Amino acid sequence: MRTRPAARAGQYAALLAYLIFLAFPFLWLLSTAFKPARELGSLHPTWIPRHPTLANFRQAFDEQPLLHAALNSLLAALGAAVIAVLIATPMAYVMARHRTRLARAASGWVVVSQAFPFVLIIIPLFLVLKQLRLIDSLAGLTLVYVVWSLPFALWMLVGYVRAVPVELEEAAAVDGAGRLRTLISVTAPLLAPGIAATALFAFVTAWNEFFFALVLLKSPGNQTLPVVLTHFIGAEGVADLGPLAAAAFLATLPSLVVFALLQRRITGGLIAGAVKS
Q1: Residues with Cβ within 8 Å of residue 47, at least 6 apart in sequence
Q2: Closest by alpha carbon to 35, among 253, 245, 232?
Q3: Which member of 106, 186, 203, 273 has the greatest number of CB atoms within 10 A?
Q4: How far is CA 176 from the centre of its chain?
């Protein structure tokens, strides 16, 4: 009993240290975004800007087409999220309800596919998109994001489907409903929270993606927001720190808001189906 308060205090201290470790980059980014140029070059930097300013934000919008790049990111991420969910939902239903060797092999492939590095697939991916004439287009980038986010979306939705009682589907079958009607009228409404969480996770993942967009998009009018952020770095590798921090802060806000609002549902999707009834 004497060691329990000390152990709990140690747990809280470790948790606090971990939160500070996670929050440090964002807090430093926020501080830098509001600092004037004189404070950015100071030999004794401070956390809180002495003379906060919005000049970095104005300069960022004047130098780069941030709104147009954000629209490109929005179109690619939204399209990828919708298409990935439309494909993954029926696939997850089949894998969860028909536990055959093929379904188990597909589940194993979903896990293994996440281990492949992007560099390993970028050359064949580039050649395929070139044959389809989808290089340097948002449609091609959206297709890549669908393929990239589909395995994780499928893994999340399988857990949600397994959490839906089979008895509900059996009752629908007794009433004469077929597989497709059961999926649309019975299972899909119960999967709505999981589908929303999966779609938003795919959206945030595509919104933050940089590597594929950098390689596949060349025209300035097609570039997404993460790629445009690199334009604040000069040819000699010197970054325009104030505008870069301001633009990066604005680009980070959508991801933070989405995860803050949906963290419980996303966590529920990860653990759904982990316990057998």
Answers
A1: 27, 31
A2: 245
A3: 203
A4: 40
For residue 208, give both structure tokens.
Answer: 């933050």
* Cα 53–chain centre separation: 31
Q: What are the beta bridge partners of residue 239?
A: 233
End-to-end CA distance of the chain: 35
- Output the pLDDT for position 58: 92
Amino acid, single-letter form, for residue 90: P
* One-character DSSP codes across 17-38: HHHHHHHHHHHHHHHHHT--HH
- Cα separation, 47 vs 32, in Å, equals 8
pTM for the whole structure: 0.79
> Any idea what the Cα angle at residue 95 is, between residues 190 and 262, rounded to 5°?
45
Q: Which two tokens stand for residue 167?
A: 């008895």
Please state, in angstroms and rounded to a whole number, the distance separating the CA atoms of residues 176 and 153. Answer: 31
Report the alpha-carbon distance of residue 216 to residue 141 in Å, rounded: 7
Q: Name the amino acid, one letter, at 219.
A: S
Report the alpha-carbon distance of residue 139 to residue 142 in Å, rounded. Answer: 5
Which two structure tokens, joined as six digits, stand for 17?
A: 């240290």
* Contacts made by residues 116-125, CB under 8 angstroms, sequence distance 24+: 118/211, 118/212, 122/211, 122/212, 122/215, 125/212
Joined tokens for residue 258: 């989405």
**Angle at which helices 66-97 and 138-163 pack, to 10 degrees?**
40
pLDDT per residue over 97-142, tens digit each? 777 777 677 667 766 766 777 777 888 888 888 888 989 899 999 9
List pLDDT tens digits, range 186-242.
Answer: 777 888 888 888 888 889 889 989 989 998 898 888 999 999 998 888 766 677 888
Convert the pLDDT of each residue in 67-83 to its tens digit. 999 999 999 999 999 99
The first and second tokens of residue 172, run together, are 């629908």
